[in-house]
UniProtKB/TrEMBL annotation:
This is NAD(P)H-quinone oxidoreductase subunit 2. The lineage of its organism: Bacteria, Bacillati, Cyanobacteriota, Cyanophyceae, Neosynechococcales. The chain crosses the membrane at residues 15-35, 42-62, 82-102, 109-126, 132-152, 164-187, 207-227, 247-271, 277-299, 306-327, 333-354, 375-397, 409-430. Residues 12-99 form the NAD(P)H-quinone oxidoreductase subunit 2 N-terminal domain. HAMAP family: NDH1_NuoN_1 (MF_00445). Coiled coil: none annotated. NDH-1 can be composed of about 15 different subunits; different subcomplexes with different compositions have been identified which probably have different functions. It comes from Neosynechococcus sphagnicola sy1.
Length: 529
């Protein structure tokens, strides 16, 4: 093979966005080594600029004619483009909310951003990985960076405890996942590419062998850990409570999006003959996640733990789209993750602002906040209402599409359970909002009574203000723009080769060719007609 042919087969331009993020990472690292702490004045903004440059590169890769790179190890199809964009954007918002938080703790901001960008690269590669070795290396890059970030506040015992728990449970889940894909490698006759594994399993007649069932269970266990699905959620509340809050925000969006991208690509391509089995397993995970996540959240007294159990419940809702196995279901899943990015990160920005000004994240201490900080109260209220699925915010349309896709696919029990648990979630979100808007002075918490003067001109506070306003505005207008966003998600599914075989097997037509009932289509201004 001559050099020109090798270059053509490598198709390295497909990973240009990841290359931009890696270059940005190296520049931040070098600047921190040379200039020290003084580089913190500009390195965060350079990192954000690099992430936005990567997103621009992703935009131009949407309609690429040859998405396969590195001899089949990486697939830059529209599905991976959307998920990589979600991870890059969540990383950019995380950096915005980290500047003041990290500097106030006295730790190095440059090292923090370097590790965060490393996790971002791992997540982006995981979204497009189409081969077992690439999947595992990408997964471990994301995981190890997450462990480091969780324990980044070395002087905080809670951060150290969270990192240790996350490391031990994460290492166990990685070992289980690795054993599952090694079984998959052996049963397929030594293939590592996902498409070749699916073909060989069908050809060799090992479609429902005991070894393949074990491989499927172990693979799902590894994925369920990443998306915080019950009963693989044990790490989530403790890690969320003890970790630096910006890292919790990134894990709740970026890491979860990477996990769902892995689930779609790996299960659809490598286990086509066991579609019914993995749908059954994910149905059980979705039921448990929706019930436990939303019910246990009712008893929480810490905002970070409440959002931890909320994220477990949200994972259960997203799994409804995965279980349907239809174009609509996958598109609804992608759409919900898009809007979840804004409403969840917006909520965490509000938690960071409150903790920076008061030093606590206890829900009871939010009492009367409206009288001292109306902007923070409004922002947190909008994000919580959207997470609860209240119209006209983005979360309502996200759940509407998910439940409609599940209903059309015949998952009536899951949809009804989703509706019931959504009502439960609204209760604990409204409880926080009600506490913030109490009007009687005697009901105000001591922390709020001594609330410091709001000063946005302090170092690192302006990025937090920009992040808060941006996420709240996006959460508000995403409902109005739900049709274009859903079309984007639907196109990502329809134009991705990894799902073509499964889409062909499904009898339910695509949203692109099927009209929803008029009363379920969002009209002008995000209203339901």
């Amino acid at each position: 093979m001559d050099f020109a042919s090798l270059v053509a087969q490598l198709n390295a331009g497909t990973i240009l966005p990841e290359g931009i993020v890696i270059t940005t990472l190296l520049l931040v690292l070098i600047a921190d080594l040379i200039a020290g702490r003084s580089s913190a004045r500009w390195t965060p903004y350079g990192a954000i600029a690099g992430l936005f440059a990567a997103m621009i590169a992703l935009y131009y890769q949407w309609d690429t004619s040859n998405p396969i790179a590195f001899l089949g190890e990486f697939n830059g199809d529209p599905l991976s483009v959307v998920f990589r964009g979600i991870i890059a954007l969540s990383s950019a918002v995380t950096i915005l909310m980290s500047i003041r938080y990290v500097e106030q703790t006295g730790t190095s901001l440059g090292e923090f951003i370097t590790i965060l960008l490393t996790a971002t690269v791992g997540g982006m590669f995981l979204c497009g990985a189409d081969e077992l070795v690439t999947i595992f290396v990408s997964l471990e890059t994301l995981s190890i960076s997450s462990y480091l970030l969780t324990g980044y506040m070395k002087r905080d015992p809670r951060s150290n405890e969270a990192a240790l728990k996350y490391l031990l449970i994460g290492a166990s889940s990685s070992a289980i996942f690795l054993y599952g894909i090694s079984l998959l490698y052996g049963l397929s006759g030594g293939e590592t590419r996902l498409s070749a594994i699916g073909t060989n399993l069908a050809t060799l007649g090992t479609g429902e062998s005991l070894g393949l069932v074990i491989a499927l269970v172990f693979v799902i266990a590894g994925i369920a850990f990443k998306i915080s699905a019950v009963p693989f959620h044990q790490w989530t509340p403790d890690v969320y409570e003890g970790s630096p809050t910006p890292i919790v925000a990134f894990l709740s969006v970026g890491s979860k999006a990477a996990g769902f991208a892995l689930a779609i690509r790996l299960l659809a391509a490598a286990f086509p003959s066991m579609e019914a089995q993995w749908h059954y397993v994910f149905t059980a995970l979705a039921v448990l996640s929706m019930i436990l996540g939303n019910v246990v959240a009712l008893t929480q007294t810490s905002m970070k733990r409440l959002l931890a159990y909320s994220s477990i419940g949200q994972a259960g809702f997203v799994m409804i789209g995965l279980i349907t196995g239809t174009t609509e279901g996958y598109a609804s899943m992608v759409f919900y993750l898009l809007v979840y990015l804004f409403m969840n990160l917006g909520g965490f920005i509000c938690v960071i602002l409150f903790s920076l000004r008061t030093g606590t994240d206890q829900i009871s201490e939010y009492a009367g906040l409206y009288q001292k900080d109306p902007l923070l109260t409004l922002g947190l209220s909008i994000c919580l209402l959207s997470l609860g699925g209240i119209p006209p915010f983005a979360g309502f349309f996200g759940k509407l599409y998910l439940f409609w896709a599940g209903w059309r696919a015949g998952a009536y029990g899951l949809v009804l359970l989703g509706l019931i648990t959504s009502v439960v979630s609204i209760y604990y979100y409204i409880r926080v909002i009600k506490m913030m808007v109490v009007k009687e002075p005697q009901e105000m918490s001591e922390v709020v009574k001594n609330y410091p003067e709001i000063r946005w001109n302090l170092p690192g506070m302006r990025p937090l203000q920009i992040g808060l306003i941006s996420t709240v505005v996006a959460t508000s207008i995403a409902g109005i723009l739900s049709n274009p966003l859903f079309t984007l998600a639907n196109d990502a599914i329809v134009n991705s080769s990894v799902l073509q075989a499964e889409i062909t097997r499904t009898a339910v037509p695509s949203v692109a060719t099927t009209k929803l009932p008029p009363n379920l289509l969002p009209g002008e201004g995000g209203q339901v007609l």
